[in-house]
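Researcher: Last one for today. Full complex below.
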Amino acid sequence: MNSARYLKRILDKLHSKKISVNSAFRELKNLPYENMGFVRLDHHRAFRKGFGEVVYCENKTHKHVKKITEALLKHKNPILLTRANKSLYDFLKKTFPALKYNEAGRIIYLKKGGLKNKKTVLILTAGTSDIPVAEEARTTLEVMGNKVKTIYDVGVAGIHRLLDKLPEISKANVIIVVAGMEGALGSVIGGLTDKPVIAVPTSVGYGSSFKGIAPLLTMMNSCSPGVAVVNIDNGFGAGYFASLINK
Amino acid sequence: MNSARYLKRILDKLHSKKISVNSAFRELKNLPYENMGFVRLDHHRAFRKGFGEVVYCENKTHKHVKKITEALLKHKNPILLTRANKSLYDFLKKTFPALKYNEAGRIIYLKKGGLKNKKTVLILTAGTSDIPVAEEARTTLEVMGNKVKTIYDVGVAGIHRLLDKLPEISKANVIIVVAGMEGALGSVIGGLTDKPVIAVPTSVGYGSSFKGIAPLLTMMNSCSPGVAVVNIDNGFGAGYFASLINK
Amino acid sequence: MNSARYLKRILDKLHSKKISVNSAFRELKNLPYENMGFVRLDHHRAFRKGFGEVVYCENKTHKHVKKITEALLKHKNPILLTRANKSLYDFLKKTFPALKYNEAGRIIYLKKGGLKNKKTVLILTAGTSDIPVAEEARTTLEVMGNKVKTIYDVGVAGIHRLLDKLPEISKANVIIVVAGMEGALGSVIGGLTDKPVIAVPTSVGYGSSFKGIAPLLTMMNSCSPGVAVVNIDNGFGAGYFASLINK
Amino acid sequence: MNSARYLKRILDKLHSKKISVNSAFRELKNLPYENMGFVRLDHHRAFRKGFGEVVYCENKTHKHVKKITEALLKHKNPILLTRANKSLYDFLKKTFPALKYNEAGRIIYLKKGGLKNKKTVLILTAGTSDIPVAEEARTTLEVMGNKVKTIYDVGVAGIHRLLDKLPEISKANVIIVVAGMEGALGSVIGGLTDKPVIAVPTSVGYGSSFKGIAPLLTMMNSCSPGVAVVNIDNGFGAGYFASLINK
Amino acid sequence: MNSARYLKRILDKLHSKKISVNSAFRELKNLPYENMGFVRLDHHRAFRKGFGEVVYCENKTHKHVKKITEALLKHKNPILLTRANKSLYDFLKKTFPALKYNEAGRIIYLKKGGLKNKKTVLILTAGTSDIPVAEEARTTLEVMGNKVKTIYDVGVAGIHRLLDKLPEISKANVIIVVAGMEGALGSVIGGLTDKPVIAVPTSVGYGSSFKGIAPLLTMMNSCSPGVAVVNIDNGFGAGYFASLINK
Amino acid sequence: MNSARYLKRILDKLHSKKISVNSAFRELKNLPYENMGFVRLDHHRAFRKGFGEVVYCENKTHKHVKKITEALLKHKNPILLTRANKSLYDFLKKTFPALKYNEAGRIIYLKKGGLKNKKTVLILTAGTSDIPVAEEARTTLEVMGNKVKTIYDVGVAGIHRLLDKLPEISKANVIIVVAGMEGALGSVIGGLTDKPVIAVPTSVGYGSSFKGIAPLLTMMNSCSPGVAVVNIDNGFGAGYFASLINK
Amino acid sequence: MNSARYLKRILDKLHSKKISVNSAFRELKNLPYENMGFVRLDHHRAFRKGFGEVVYCENKTHKHVKKITEALLKHKNPILLTRANKSLYDFLKKTFPALKYNEAGRIIYLKKGGLKNKKTVLILTAGTSDIPVAEEARTTLEVMGNKVKTIYDVGVAGIHRLLDKLPEISKANVIIVVAGMEGALGSVIGGLTDKPVIAVPTSVGYGSSFKGIAPLLTMMNSCSPGVAVVNIDNGFGAGYFASLINK
Amino acid sequence: MNSARYLKRILDKLHSKKISVNSAFRELKNLPYENMGFVRLDHHRAFRKGFGEVVYCENKTHKHVKKITEALLKHKNPILLTRANKSLYDFLKKTFPALKYNEAGRIIYLKKGGLKNKKTVLILTAGTSDIPVAEEARTTLEVMGNKVKTIYDVGVAGIHRLLDKLPEISKANVIIVVAGMEGALGSVIGGLTDKPVIAVPTSVGYGSSFKGIAPLLTMMNSCSPGVAVVNIDNGFGAGYFASLINK
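Model: Here's the assembly. Have a good evening.
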């Protein structure tokens, strides 16, 4: 629900004396989130953003993630737990057997409802080492109700592998390009399609790739228009952004 | 037209002996572009990308831009000449009186056809100095047939100015955020909307903003999902990308 | 006035039917600022921040600054126009003869009311080239009603010049240290006083001082506790922050 | 005690022949600190800085820290041992059972005396991963005799969680903002309050946050005045600086 | 075989009805590579680049490398597996006993055919720590059929060691210079020879060598013409490039 | 002539008493160069490097360049004066009417002798703004006796323009790729050819291309083997290096 | 005079009642410097540092420099005014006809007394563009009473020019190496001599030399021991440091 | 022995037919060093540099270091093995019981001969964590025959600890300052003495000290003349350089 309408409804109730000044004030102050002590779960986010809170598991204890998962499930939210290792999954699985795990993408998830959208998001990677980031994007997209296709290992060093895929590329509605090293794939795809291209630099590479800075700069400076960039290795962010477009 | 279909049609003609091997070969080689000596005009781009070639005027002589404009007009393309100063506009205007100029955005343009899309793209700036970049985005969007709204000078230093605009923000289909200094506006908007947010860092600021690096990093690291980034001061790129989404 | 109380008062009026739902909604939305087309003047800031809007003049036309000044004077605000050159001052002076100018600090100002505070803010510079930044801080502080002392050119290359000033240093309530080159003065002062030290790196220096990065890093890494840092050359920011402490 | 007065008293004694030239010379040379071979304990610091020496434990052996603690306790100083792991605490606890430990903030401490100040320092964090840095600041403040409130996990991605806390924010006398990723919380708080805001960038984040550089730049370039910055992850420095202001 | 001729031959067959349109289309699309699920082996590369696919082993499982090796051997390709540790070699050796291992250069290989070229490539290192990178280059060159000479530990700190080697240097056809620390060897060799010099910066060094950035910059800025640079520690790239020149 | 042989010949003469010890010593010390006071002309370079001294004109006075040119002509050297503006050319032309000028490439030259080599060096640029750097390379190559072909404005944003040129690309013996912005052209060409590719990053671009750092990193990290890099905008260096290979 | 002895003498006078407590206090506080309002001239520096204050003229008005010169001459100090342009010299010359000017080194000077030292400081430059920095060092050394030799344009691209100078190099007592571009000369000289080598990186170079960062890093990472570095373009600093060693 | 004289002597022998051309040539080529396969031991260095080869142990196997030590001892050289851990020392000790170890400085050594110099080198550190680097410098200096004094933990945060040491500082002939964090100690000492100051930045510090870059920049930009810098953590380099000066 839109914040302005939410505000107006409370004011209406107040005006018609259905609620007191004090409770209106509290209402306005206490938008719906849940203070769990170590974290403030933002249930309201589903209203504002169209999708509930996603949990970044790095640096969180198993117990904390379990409690958060419990709270999210109580609200019938779909689940996305990113940067989750296998041992966390094994731990959560005991209590929540419905949870699924994409090991390559290091992401635990639970879908709610089927496909919301018939248009396809296509994910391309330049190399095989970029696959984990691509997989994080794929699961994010699927849990958010999108149809996903993937084509991996089509970097520009062997451009015919890529040209071979032109028909698939031309059918996609949104394209995610995942590439490390010099990240040139983003520019090449950007020049071949009329669909928005989301470029994800990865920290794959060595020496002067500087853990992703080289492909990040390449993608930022793409000579093809129609390319936007998300953070290094941020497969989740690319998937989320693609899903917003795909709606 | 899609490249694979284009290829297949030539092969069909060849198979049915409508064209010779040599002319098929020439055809395949000579995809439609125009070699003007100093530049190769990519008329084919309109097929591939849904919009013709855009001319970046910095470092080009008045005469060169005039010749390119001539060639583009011959093909009935809309015109977008970015980073164009007033004196270039005055020069071109004599020969092509239909051209328009957005002086703040330093962009010369000519629309073809009316609105292709009823959904709105909203452009926000953090400060008044970010307006030139925003205006470049605005004209780009309008020439590409989009409806645009702008809200300028709503940076986070006075967040109530921003909250006041929530209803407009919630009505947009795509949002462009233009911000220099620390660029925090991107994250804040990203947290308030369920629409894709395209963030444009600007070189506005001083000291350790390092000509746009500070807001670029801020936007890349946005804690709100749903935000992607284009190059520093790249209003055209943001507009173009937003138009692809808005279609 | 505090935002929460402001909100409550409107709700009270609404509850007692003094105002309609629609006008309450408008009120909540339209917190007091003034849309001047090219800029949104934040008159409300004086309530929130205890001091009205400060105008950064770089990149603004003389006419725009004049209009803003007019609007600010109408609300009886004190005036602070930073990064203002002499020609802007001469231009404004014709219409607003009461305006004063600190040429070294490139700042146009108008005080309202006398000293609000008897405690002294002390400004130190390492060299003579750091003085413009220090002067910007000084005028900012004075317009905000503070007592200011300055000691210039006491860098650590001649540490006896500094030790000589220990009594003055020990009398200050807040200390601003302005230094370029290697910026070591911040650490040394931080080790000698029990008052908060605000360090301002300047772009003074050459070669590997990298336009202020060297002193910025020095000050961030100060081995003395009690030192915080503002942006390179940001004399206004240091003065403003010192004034908040001094209250 | 102020250094100049200290100097004058020695000169007085010398003039009245209460002490010899040689002992005056020694006195002036030997300001009170304790040479422990591997470290020079600066007992004099309490006079100069209003608080005794704080020990940074990283890279120090358990034995060295024990000896230093012993020396500090002999002078009845309060104790602050930062970056201390649990095993160091367990080791010290055997000899000094009065020592306390804040495990999240990795800081061992011993208070002397009660609250010296009724005004509150408020510590905000953007996320849950910023809490360790915030806890280091909290204990530092409490040992120095300040009243502290904390509000954790109120980053700008869910800005309503923050607006809900406006009343608490408006009651604080000094505010510390701890944030990683893009660090936008500093600017937003800076725009909402008239109290000094101390911003602490944290190394929380990934990809192009570059271990804290991104939020550091964000905070340095804050478009809100009234914000100063301390080093990355430097919770102790923020607490110390806030305590100086709060006095 | 050259791509244009390849294309023409297919068109010829089509024209003479030896193949159908559909099979021509498939042929054009499916240039020869092998989709192994986790990787697309580019057998066509030997035609385009004169040498088959080289496998970078870092981050690949033993099993994956084994499968790739199998596929490469089936096509009678020579083998180059870079960044391979001893345990991978021991694993592969069981199945493919013909494989050889250069432990210093961490490279597994299998030559096909003898020397294709009588001209010598000379590899120089500045220090002993640069030898692993040099050895990676050496094996690459030998598997590609080149004659290689090496002179190690002749850095500029003892320039007479280098001058002693002038006759060998003057006999080489291509020279590779491998150097870390400050990388000055590249410039000195560049000034002494009329043969192309390929400079490889290494991550050897400490402090401000920044893992290879210092020698990379040195080599990029060489005051001697005739020097080109490959990535940090990229011995394979230097060897490959030298082999292309040496042909 | 090779230095070792040069040394041996002097020793032979000495041994056979054709020259005295002192004159041998002088000979060894005074290898042929010319001390002109403000510069030491290295006539010996032609022996060592196969080509005489090239003069970088930036920061040199017209008079100095004239004197150097005089000295070079006396030795019948070909002439290459790089980074030379039109006014310098007009000045020199009066005295040395045989000099030629490539205005785009800002290079003054005089060829000696015809083509020394039938193999072609191909120069590609990504955009039109990269042409000046390409022209500097072209003249360098031609003066050194090479056959040169150029294909300009074939960046990856319109990859069909590039594929169209595959036959020319496959005929070249050495390829120079000149590209700014994100510099992806180097990787794409590297993947299509079996000839050495010399990549030249240019400072063309804006925002985060950082005056050539972005394409430099892209090229250093090229996922295609067979690519080496020279300094930003260093067309002369690329031409010189290509000529060494082409011999 | 040594600071400790200075202190003791005052205490002696006080003890013997030759001076009062108050005047002793003043004396200790007011070490000899001269407050000229815009600058604090440190006459005491000659005691502490063995040489009076040196004036950096960049950003100082002609009038200010004149006043400072006046004050320095009154104390019979030698004069060193660095970064001084010709017009400043012409201005000062009218009042102080004894002043000399080194135009290449942009330094105004006045010697006092003859040679204080028979040992030679040798200054080498890699190229002709490094000469201004070398000349600043030369005049600094000569005014401080040192014997100086210079050898210019002996960079490593033509190493025989350098080897020719070995006898001169071996006679020097201290060596200053001035080099831009890649700065390799420092390492080479460091490997050839047993005297201290002071390396001065210069901002000469283009592209990735980054205004001196490349040679600075080269020199910091010199593989030859016996090399220390001063700031980019800091000829004065190198000369001053060399003079301290030469004493 | 000086290289030029060495050369002349060989020529003399040749002229007088005491040696043949061939043996003269060999002699000139084979300056005295020892090719050990994995390393070229530069025995000639003692002639050129006044001190034999120093061995950097990081990345060398125990066996290699043992062989090198053996060779060095055969030539009666003093021994300096830097970056050596305890286990290497224990290993070498068995064969060479005369070797000593400075554990803090991680340096194995063997002195030859007594003090060669009565003048003192003083080593200061800012903190206790800088001591390992200082100890590396100390042993280097002592093995090279210098008298050394050390004063540790006198950083500028407690500047009275430093002032107390002025008499010792004024007695030194050369001063080494070792400091991490912000490295301000170098500038302060530089302002207090007329002796050369060698500054060593250390990687001690956290957050934005960036492993030594912050103090490196501070020291490069020192506002005090008379300060030169060596690499981060390079205690050996500082000691070696100081020894050259002290001779």
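Residues 62 and 87 of chain F are 9 Å apart (CA to CA). Chains F and D do not touch (no CB pair under 8 Å).
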